[in-house]
Amino acid sequence: MKLIQHYDNMFNQSIGQISRGEIEIDQQIDNDRDRRRGLTLLIRPNDEIKARVGAFQDELMKIDGVQYYQPSSDLHVTALSIISCYEGFDLSDIQIQDYEDIISQSLNDIPSTELKFKGITASREAVLIQGFPMGDGLEILRDRLRSNFSSSALQQHIDSRYRLATAHMTSVRFRKELRSPDKFGTKLQDYRAAEFGEMKIESLELVYNDWYQNSNIVKILHRFAL
Question: Do you know which InterPro entries this protein is assigned to (predicted)?
Answer without folding.
Answer: Cyclic_Pdiesterase
